[in-house]
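From the shared-data thread, chain only:
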Amino acid sequence: MTDHEQGDLHDLLDDAVADVEPGYALDRIRARTTTTKRRWPYAAGGAVLAIAASFTAFAVLGPDTAPRATDPGSTTSPSATATDTPAPEVVPVYFVGDTPDGPRLYREFQAGSGPEGAKMFALRAALSGAADPDYRSLWPAGATIEKYFMA
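Structure, as tokens:
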């Protein structure tokens, strides 16, 4: 390309862009392409989750105010019972039973009490066997609380 041709090309390009005024357009581009993010659903969901967790924690860790079961044949009220003999409680005891799908846990409610309390009564009942002959315990024969838990 000769000097004369280069000069003509320069003049043509200069005329083509002479009326173009560059400006700062980044803000306008961002405004057109950015969508507003709504964060309030996440905040509302978090608040609901926190409230549910609080209620669950209170229900699990709160005081046990449920009334205790008494012997149905008893004519005395629970408050009139002597303090040196514990009132019998109904406690859940879990055993294993066979099903077509394999062994499953079954819950059996047994009434009674021991000097150590309802939880120890339930443990002793689990070691001694179920009232229902279809259920069995997975503890070894001859297992005792003293052997496994008082060592």
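The mean pLDDT is 76.
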